[in-house]
Amino acid sequence: RGAGTQVSGRIMLAVDPGLLRSVGAQDRVVTVSATNGKTTTTRLLCDALRHAGLPVVTNHTGANMASGIAGALAAPHPASVAVLEVDERWLTHVVEPLDPEVLVFGNLSRDQLDRFGEVHAIVDRWRAITEAAPDRHVIANSSDPHVVHAAEPARRVTWVALGIPWKQDATTCPRCDALLEWPEGGFRCPGCGFDEPAADFRLEDDVLMVGPRRIPLDLAIPGTWNRMNAA
Description:
- It is a single chain.
- The chain is α/β, with parallel strands linked by helices.
- It is built from 9 helices and 9 strands.
- It has a 9-stranded mixed sheet, with helices on both faces.
- Helix 8 links the parallel strand 5 and strand 6 (157-161).
- It is globular and about 50 Å long.
- It starts with a helix and ends with a helix.
């Protein structure tokens, strides 16, 4: 019943555990991972690419673990840009076989601790991904200390300053465990000097700043989080 992407993906991976590598081989892959907003961000990105005339394949049902991704990519489609929402805990399992060109890192917080695990453990997994392939392009939220630490090893990072309305999960430095300070304009560690990097893009209310250029975000979906997703 329904789309069946999850169960079909489970069956396919049981038959062929290496299936992700073969079904994703023809596509240019982008992964989007975060605690909050990954579904909306993925859909916005898909719409932007389609508007630019590019063929797109995606896990539109929101099945964002390996089985759901396998089900989405196994459906017959021409060579496309595969824009894939990926559960933050599962990112390490899909990056190696899919070899994405671009990683999008949103935010990391204690959303559902019983299901997703401790934030610092996920940060370490994400950082291992960028350390293993430092030439891969990363688009990352420069306002989240966890995300900054995970993206740092990458040689090419596009930083996007989104602000961080929820600081309770970012109280300590991911490098040295000292208490972070939050002066105007970002975070700073008094212990080791870890601080918010200069951003290429900056969200200011409902305007995305790209250097001196102002891009108003006139969205059909309301709320601060969706402005962050759009940025």
